[in-house]
Give the backbone structure.
Amino acid sequence: MLPAQTPEVYMNTKLGQGINIDGAYGNQCWDWANYYIMNYLYFPRINGNAITFLNNVDTTKYQVVRNTPSAVPKEGDIIVWDYSPNGHVAVCAYGANKTSFTSYDQNYPVQGYIDTRGDFIGTGTVHRQSHSYDHVIGWLHPLNALPKGWSSEDYWLANPDVKIAGVDPIVHWKKYGYREGRLLHPIPVPVVVPVPPVIEIPVEPIPEPPVTEIPEPVVITPEPTETPTEEAISANFIANILKPIINFIIKIWEIIIKK
Ligand SMILES: [Ca+2]
């Protein structure tokens, strides 16, 4: 996450660029001022000629400051001149005082000029320009100009000292934070996924399975059942049936004799 840029730091990145957002009349001062408004302040562009920039101002976005002997514009303020017929507009750099200031301009003075060494200095691109307050009618001081993606909660997380001090994040940012290059969002802490240690499992040799001898199948041959002979049946009849009957008769006989 990049630290927030001051207006000066931002404008420095645009030095030498020719900006023409409406595609008409070349690289005007108006193009550059609106480019800054849209891409740094994230406000809608201001229509109309430069000389009308202080008219019909959205007071939720800008404070209008009229030029007086004691007024000094702040870095990032949008300064307006009343040059006839269309005026001029530029963005104030850091370090203005009551007698002069430097701003980031385009198309001023005209498209360029011959400097004291005879070189042509093109002004059709963004450049730093020193000024007196001549023809300055005033400036727009941006309000609530917060960087894109602003989150007060994130600002506190990124700057815990501001939270501990109980300072409103927006107030801190506008007064000090942007100049100190404070972070707008906390630096994400990378999530470290612990890598489990590699456990080496000893590879034991797989024992050879014992060779089991398959026994020969035992063929059981059933004994042939003998069919009882007639003699055996007869002997069985005598022993089991006839003999008991005879014994019974003998006993009866003995009882009769004894009597
Ligand atoms: Ca233009």
